[in-house]
Design brief:
Length: about 190
């Protein structure tokens, strides 16, 4: 299984707040390209009138320019890349993390965000449901209305630590390395 570093579980928002003056926003971390589907996320954030922060390197310049055009007049912040500690602070500052990809496995960034206490919106494609179960909010990446509904439900849901505890219990690198070792040992028998 995929995993994340437990350092995200102790993330504090102060650094991100100081540098970017943002708190309580919709966040999406990932390379900017069609597969990650930021354009649909921008449209959903615009429709819901929510501030959106996109963090990640540009993998497709044409797609990035299309995202910039779509975000005109909206509160969308683009940040190229952050160190792991800065990224942890961004997660801790956000209210919801959304990864509305066409496909993901479940997205290391979703695991990191969950550890930092974010509510998670993710694609209904791939294996995200196997990782997050009923702790996350799911959408269809090609349907803006389902993206909006999942974001709205996550945004308005009560904050709790069940997802954070679930990810810490099951998806740290140490725990997934042990699961991988046990699988190899079973295969060798």
């Amino acid at each position: 299984p995929n995993a994340a570093d437990p350092i995200f579980a102790v993330a504090k928002p102060e650094h991100f707040l100081r540098v970017y003056r943002s708190k309580d926003f919709l966040l999406s971390v990932g390379r900017i390209w069609q597969r990650t589907n930021q354009l649909a996320l921008i449209r959903a954030a615009k429709k819901l009138k929510l501030p959106l922060v996109l963090i990640g390197p540009i993998n497709d310049g044409i797609y990035y320019r299309e995202c910039r055009r779509e975000s005109a007049g909206c509160k969308v912040t683009f940040i190229d890349a952050l160190s792991p500690l800065e990224l942890a602070s961004a997660y801790a500052s956000a209210r919801v993390h959304a990864l509305v990809s066409w496909y993901d496995t479940p997205g290391l960034v979703s695991l990191e965000a969950a550890m930092a206490g974010c509510k998670i919106v993710t694609t209904d494609r791939g294996c995200a449901k196997e990782y997050f179960g009923d702790y996350a909010f799911y959408c269809k990446p090609g349907k803006i209305d389902t993206i909006c509904e999942a974001i709205n439900d996550a945004w308005n849901s009560k904050k709790d630590n069940q997802l954070k505890e679930h990810v810490l219990t099951n998806y740290t690198w140490e725990k997934t390395a042990l699961k991988t070792l046990l699988a190899y040992q079973a295969a060798l028998v």
